[in-house]
Sequence to fold (760 residues):
Amino acid sequence: MKLSISKEHLNESIGHVSKAITSRTPIPILSGIKFDTTEEGVRLTASDADITIQSFIPVEKDGHTIIRVEQEGSVVLPAKFFGEIIKKLPSNEIEIEIRPPFQATIRSGGSEVQLVGLDPEEYPQLPVIEERKIVSVPGDLLKTMIRQTSYAVSTSEATPILTGVLWSLDEQGLKFISCDRHRLAQRETPLDASTEQYFRGVVISGKTLNELSKVIPDDHSLTDIVVSDNQVLFRMDNLLFYSRLLEGTYPDTSKLIPNQFQTEIVVSGKLLTEAIDRAYLLSREEKTNIVKLVMNEDQTLEISSSSSEIGKVTEMIPVESMTGQLLKISFNSKYMLDALRVIDSEAIRLGFTGAMSPIIIEPLGETKVLQLILPYRTTN
Amino acid sequence: MKLSISKEHLNESIGHVSKAITSRTPIPILSGIKFDTTEEGVRLTASDADITIQSFIPVEKDGHTIIRVEQEGSVVLPAKFFGEIIKKLPSNEIEIEIRPPFQATIRSGGSEVQLVGLDPEEYPQLPVIEERKIVSVPGDLLKTMIRQTSYAVSTSEATPILTGVLWSLDEQGLKFISCDRHRLAQRETPLDASTEQYFRGVVISGKTLNELSKVIPDDHSLTDIVVSDNQVLFRMDNLLFYSRLLEGTYPDTSKLIPNQFQTEIVVSGKLLTEAIDRAYLLSREEKTNIVKLVMNEDQTLEISSSSSEIGKVTEMIPVESMTGQLLKISFNSKYMLDALRVIDSEAIRLGFTGAMSPIIIEPLGETKVLQLILPYRTTN
Fold:
C-alpha cells in the first residue's frame, strides 16, 4: 500500500471513526483503525464490537484531488497514536507506505513516523445487515430527537434495557422513548412509510446515540436508518455507523402518561428554567435536589428549596395561564432542568394530576415532545 | 447592614476573592466571604490562612452609582453558594439586608434568598505587614515573569521550599528562580530600587503565584509588591493579595548554570517546539518522555523517540546556526516543551556542555529568561 493524502480530510475521517474506539478493549486489534486503500479512495474502519464506524475518503472531491494512490492495500494502525500524530504533522500532504509485514512509514515535511501495523485479515468483518427496512430522516431532526430523549436513559447496569432508547415506526410516525424509572422522555415525528418498513421494540444504547449524534451532519441531508433483527445501520454521506441493538423487552410505558390533568399551567420556559436553576443550586447542597412548587391564586408560581445549613431560595414567577386545582408538589430539580433544557420552546405547558402523580412537561405548539418526571413524596 | 449593589461589580469582586477559598478548610469560618459595608463601599475578604484576598467596591465609579448604602455593617456569608447564586440572580440590582444575628436576605427580581451568615468578629484579622520594602512592577510584566518560572516548581511536598519561586531584588533588578531538581527556570528584569528596598531569599508558593496571576490586570497598570519577613502583599487597584512566605532556605542554584558552552545552536522556536511535540507524543506512550537529539554536520537537528510497541518518530529540522562540537543528547521532552512554551521568542538559543550536562534554553534577544533541563543519562 502506498499513497499520499490530504491531512485535513484524513483528520476528519479519523475523528469520525475514532468515536468507536474504547481505551481498553479486550480484543487488541480493536485498538486499531483499519485502513483500506483502493483506486476509489481510502476506507477507515473502527469498532468496539458493539458499534462500528466506517468512513470513506474518495480520491477526488469537487474536482480537488484528495488522495493519490500508488499502490492499493490494507493495514491496521494503532488508533490513538495514529490520530494524534496525523493532527500534528507539519505539512498538509501526508505520504503513507506499508512494507511487509505491516510496517507503516508516514512522511510529512521533515517528519518521518514508523508505525508497527497489524494484519488487516485479523480485523473483524463488518456486520451483515439485511437492507429491508430503510427509512430516511433529515440529520438535524434526528439529532434533535436523540437530544430530547437520550438524556433520560438509565445509567444503572442493573436494568440494561433501560440504558437504551426505544425506537418504533408505524402509522403515527417515528417515536423515541426513554425512561429511567424516575422520569420519561418521548419524542414523535410524522414519517411517511409503508407497513413493510414499520418496526417496533428496537432499543439502541443511549451512549451509542450520543456518539452517533456527533457524526451526523447538522443540516437537512438525509440519514438512512436500516433496521435488522439485532443491528441498526445509519448511513450518511461517506459514513456508515453500525450499532448492535440492546437485547430484551422494553417495558410498556404508555400507562405512565396521564390522559387527563387536574391542573394545567402555561409558563415562560426561560423564567421557569432560571428560577428552578437557582432553587436547584441550594437543593444540590442537600444532595436531594428537592424543590417545592406552590401554585398561588394570584396566577403566580412559588418555587423554593431550603438547606438547614445554608438557607432558603424562594422564587416567584408569573404564569401565562393556569387552569384547574391549585397544587403543592415537590420534585427533583435536576430532572426538571434536564427536561426543560431539551424542549426548544418559549412557552411550556405543565400538566399535573395531583401531588403524588407524574408531572408532564411539554412545549406549547405542534412538536410532539413529552417529558415526564415523578414527584417526590414529601409530607409538607 | 442594608444596601443595594450592581450584580456585575459584586460578581467580579467575588470572582477575585474566591481564589483564596479552598473547598475543605479546617477552619469553618474560612469557608465564608467576609462582607463589610461602609459609607465608602463594600469590602470582600476571603482567606485560606496562607493567602488572603481583599477586594473593594466603591459606592461610585466613573460617575456611575454601584452601591447604595442604607445601613453599614458586616457579615460572613458561605462563599461557594453565595458566589454561585449571585451569578444567576435575575436582575442587575441586588438588595442585601442583614438582620440579627447574622441572617442575610438577598433580593433580586422575583428571587429571594435567605442565607445563614456567621459572626464577622470571628473572622481572622488581616495580616499586619510593615510597609518598608515596596516596589512597583507593571501587571503584564509580573504575569509574564510568573508564567516563565512558576511552571518549573517542584510538586513534591518532600522538599516544600522547592514548591515555591525564589524572589530577590538587588542592583541587577528583580529575579525569579524555580527549580525541581530536574529543571530550572530563571527570569530577571531591570528595576530601579534603592538599597533599602532590596530583598533576597523570599520564596512564594508556585500555586499562590498562579492564583495571583489570575487577578493581576493584564495591562501596564502597576502592582505594588510589599515584602516583609514572613508575608508578601500585592496591591492592585481596589485589590489586596496577601501571601505567607514559604519557610526555609532556598538552595543555591547558581552553580547549576554553565558559563561556557561546548555547543551553541540557534533554531526557530516554532519548528523546534512542533518537532519535539510530535516526538513527545510517542515518548509519552513509553511513560519516559525520552527524546533524543542528534546534531548533524549538514546543520540539521535530528529529533527522535521510539516505542517498542508502536514505532518511531524522526524529525529533521534546519538550524539557523550551530557552533562547537556535534553532540547526541537525550532529555525529557515534556520538560523541554514546558520550557519552550514559556519563552516568547521566534528564535531560541540552545547551549550544551556535553551529553551529561544541563541544557540551556534561552530566547535570542535582550529578555533575560533562562530555562535549564538536565539530560537523561542513556547509553546510546
